[in-house]
Amino acid sequence: MLDGVDFTTNKKPRRRKRDPDGTRSAILEAAGKLLARDGPEGLSVSQVAQLAGVNRGTAYQHFPTREQLLEATAAWVGEKLRLAVFGGQMADPAAALGDPKMVAEQMTAFAMENPELGRVWLFEVLSSSRPDNDPFWHQYWTQFEKFAKSDMAQPGIDAEVHSVLMLLGTFLWPVFARSQTRTAKDRQELAQRFSNEILRWSLYGTMRPEKYPELDARVKKAAGTSKRSR
Amino acid sequence: MLDGVDFTTNKKPRRRKRDPDGTRSAILEAAGKLLARDGPEGLSVSQVAQLAGVNRGTAYQHFPTREQLLEATAAWVGEKLRLAVFGGQMADPAAALGDPKMVAEQMTAFAMENPELGRVWLFEVLSSSRPDNDPFWHQYWTQFEKFAKSDMAQPGIDAEVHSVLMLLGTFLWPVFARSQTRTAKDRQELAQRFSNEILRWSLYGTMRPEKYPELDARVKKAAGTSKRSR
DNA sequence: CAGTAAATCAACAATGTTGTTGATATGCTT
DNA sequence: AAGCATATCAACAACATTGTTGATTTACTG
After folding, report:
1. Which residues of A touch B198 (CB under 8 A)?
2. Residue A179 and residue B40: Cβ atoms within 8 Å?
3. Is the pLDDT of residue A91 over 60?
4. Are the CB atoms for B69 and B45 separated by under 8 Å?
């Protein structure tokens, strides 16, 4: 699954300057790259250390076990993701309701650029016992819940289910798209189709079209008897 | 990740009766169990052979490489899944339009019972270059496309995108549910919430509610300008 | 400028894994 | 019943990986 990238260039048998934080970052960055290339199964501490230009022992000093390294990397990716999608905007409870469309676009862009990485992150979070600990998950969730409660949304939405579905689609569709296409053009088209379908779905299932005049609205709704919003 | 099951009971150092097909099945079955327990990363040919009560060499005779064993197992699971969901009903092009609700229920049941297995299968298929080769995928796809084209469905559905989304949700929600809950009761509730949200979604996004009188219909739709249904 | 805590590294031991190969037993065919 | 193809197995070789430990260097502190 070499993807045109070559990580075999290691020509620094020199001792690393003492710099705990820097080393830690280097390790995480390397882990991220390898994760993005091979997925989680193929990640060994050896490779990570090598790519990071760090002794394996050092890596073990920073992350006592392979598993913990994986977790830390996922969290690190989550933070990166949060920055890419929400920019500097803090996860402040009083934060304004961001533009969902923008969020979706940023998210999709990230997913298309790093399909494996996105997939890994999502799984780590999905299987974690406290997804809310992840920075991106937390902010996404907060924001979506706010939207679901607003009068922009259909009533009765189960925000949790819906969030998970959206994240699943956004991060895993690219995995599918990658394996089905050869050219970037094809991928672009698949990405487009995905967006379209999501939009169609949202219009008829999530958003109140009449609140989004720029999109041809044609739906009417009645209050449901649903009780759950979380 | 021991899940209450113990596979360490192997007390048969006796030579296996010659039976190629049986052996092959035994290997696949063992691989399936291990896959369901540990996920794909943790699967080694050694373990599989041991659990199957077969010499490792024999396993290599049947499946030249670990990777091929994984593929074969996925296909095998796919067939199992097809049977569980569609029963004996053949993938015949002239087959009647099955009951989508029934299909969804069967699928959900399978996914809840074998979360890891479902996940593994889905990934193998999603990343395969020809998903259509998988027996279950093929039949599901066929059936859904038929539905999408029928007058029971909203117009303009992108059947491929939609299928992928449905499968993603159905097979990966249980992964989430598992990690969030301790009791079977909680899991049951999460499964219920998922079904509800999917139904709500389908009503407003996929199915024409007026065609499903038994569910309170309250939607109206207008023909879209979408061109693609694949 | 000592002295110290700790960050980095090299080497070790213990496993586990993958493929391969040549021996052995087994069922089928004639 | 003899012969043969092959399904099954045991043993081997080559690695890779995981943790661990003790030495070495580096920055900081008084």
Report:
1. 161
2. no
3. no
4. yes
